[in-house]
Write a structure and sequence with these properties.
With 202 residues, the protein is of the alpha/beta class. It has 7 helices and 6 strands, in the order E-H-H-H-H-E-H-E-E-H-E-E-H. It has 2 domains: 140 residues, HAD superfamily/HAD-like (Rossmann fold), CATH 3.40.50; 52 residues. It is 32% helix and 11% strand.
């Protein structure tokens, strides 16, 4: 049986951009932003900016810092290494022109080069068994194709009503034990959870 293909977004799922955004804003305006960020446009959090998306992601100097220096979200790499025994993994991310090289640098920096990557805005058009993303728009479009769309919880996607995971370990639990994710045939034996898996939930 071929392994199911899990499409994995990067920003807001693997890479935490918020610390870099906060640092740039504070250094530029000498004031703190309004956190948490609850809108994709980020206008609620960075009041001195007319267009936060342009300021952070289209300004070449800011974009370079944000995409190269942002930290990895906790347990991302470890979970990917465990689940890739049973799932094919492919990164899918939307980047403004010129930022792709920064994301490739980040992937290499965090030793994730073994997973292929595709830059795409319309993720629902891609082949894949399921999508892990933090964008409600992407999740909704993908779900409408009849495939599972899994939301990685962030303040800006609290309105999502479908499948949701709070952490990477929660994703691992969902992939192997949630009965409505039809990745496996009936004869498949559930994977044994690694030692210490539940320490987050105790």
């Amino acid at each position: 049986m071929d392994r199911p293909l899990l499409l994995v977004d990067i920003d807001g799922v693997c890479r935490n951009l918020v610390p870099a955004l906060v640092r740039i804003y504070q250094e530029t305006f000498q004031e703190k932003p309004v956190l948490p960020i609850r809108l994709w446009t980020m206008k609620d959090s960075f009041p001195r900016l007319e267009n936060p998306v342009d300021f952070f992601f289209k300004n070449k100097e800011n974009a370079r810092y944000v995409f190269r220096e942002s930290p990895m979200i906790e347990n991302c790499a470890e979970t990917l290494r465990r689940i890739d025994q049973d799932f094919e993994i492919k990164f899918v991310t939307a980047q403004y022109n010129g930022n792709e090289e920064h994301t490739l640098y980040w992937i290499k920096k965090h030793e994730l080069e073994k997973y292929p990557i595709e830059f795409a805005w319309e993720k629902y058009k891609l082949d894949g068994s399921a999508l892990l993303d933090d964008s409600i728009k992407n999740l909704l479009e993908f779900e409408q194709t009849g495939r599972p769309a899994i939301c990685f919880a962030q303040p800006w996607n609290s309105d999502w009503k479908g499948l949701r995971v709070l952490t990477w370990w929660h994703l691992e639990l969902l992939l192997y034990y949630f009965p409505t994710l039809q990745f496996w045939n009936e004869k498949r034996v559930p994977k044994k959870i690694h030692k210490g898996f539940f320490k987050e939930f105790v």
